[in-house]
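User: Please run a holo structure prediction.
Assistant: Happy to. Please share the sequence and the ligand.
User: Here you go; the ligand is NDP.
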Amino acid sequence: MLLLTIVAGLAVVTTLLILFAPYIRKYASGGVCTSTSRLDGKTVLITGANTGIGKETARDLTMRGARVIMACRDVEKGEEAAASIRAADPKAQLEVRRLDLADTCSIRAFAKEFLRDFDHLHILINNAGVMMCPYTKTADGFEMHIGVNHLGHFLLTYLLIGLLKRSAPARIVVVSSLAHYFGWIRFHDLHSQGSYNGGLAYCQSKVANLLFARELAQRLKGTNVTVNALHPGTVNSDLTRHSTLMMIFMSLFSIFIKTPREGAQTTIYCAVAEELHSVSGKYFSDCAPASVAPQGRNDQTAKRLWDVSCELLGIEWE
Ligand SMILES: NC(=O)C1=CN([C@@H]2O[C@H](COP(=O)(O)OP(=O)(O)OC[C@H]3O[C@@H](n4cnc5c(N)ncnc54)[C@H](OP(=O)(O)O)[C@@H]3O)[C@@H](O)[C@H]2O)C=CC1
Ligand SMILES: CC1=C(/C=C/C(C)=C/C=C/C(C)=C/C=O)C(C)(C)CCC1
């Protein structure tokens, strides 16, 4: 009898899911960037553009006329992604360059060549990310999540900020996550040497993204360079590659989860929306303002993280 009830229940749920699938999909796909802004003559740099949200952002921005530099740690994968975008749009202006955010030498080499080859940078999209990887260190000894997701992008932005200012109006877009709600900055053990949990290390790095955007927005006041952060939604991408459980969840519940193209909408919105022309230091989700957890909007923590980051990277950023 119990078995029969369970089977009947499952059948009802499955039937409802099938019947309402188009509506569920439409709701889950989230906000859409409706801006028709063109980017002709503009130069855009996207980190981690060979797959997922970064690749779809590159596709959209080239279609708006931008010249897009895809900064990828694996150039071969980057070229494959560029070829697939060009296959649909032969006029796409794309260039793949090598950037490994887990190595400050690679970041410095990338920036040096970028500054040599480009006179302008109008939009910088700090998109690349790792999630829940086993405990690993970057070439400079930083824990991988804080090293790639925060410190790598911190250094890249520092090296390119002069060019962004000279190219103003310019925008910096920081891809953070709702996961910041579950993280906090562990100044006493930033690199998780005492104890390590991949999920918490990821969440910490996503709070760091928000605090960085917040502090940077303060420092960029009056420069006509804006910086905003965002949550792309829950997106079916390679991000979950280190967690079998997450991959299973993503497959089982794929109807509730965004495709990479849907997940790129808020990034695109932050990069092009006319109404954000002078908006800075804000956080968006589904192409609309969203609320930040208290640990992501604490000015003292933001300043402290800024100083610690400069010290770790051996830089002075006034
Ligand atoms: N997917 C989701 O549900 C969510 C994603 N986000 C954020 O969105 C952003 C994009 O993620 P998503 O597209 O989903 O994930 P993907 O794994 O599909 O893409 C991540 C990109 O980052 C690149 N990357 C990783 N490590 C490095 C490195 N050391 N140097 C340079 N590039 C690197 C990857 O390169 P490679 O392919 O070579 O590994 C890849 O191109 C991330 O910042 C993530 O935190 C936020 C909330 C939810
Ligand atoms: C558990 C669970 C889900 C899966 C959530 C996942 C897989 C979230 C992934 C978040 C990521 C990757 C965040 C990155 O910053 C659903 C299907 C939403 C609803 C049912 C309960």
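The chain has one domain: 34-313.
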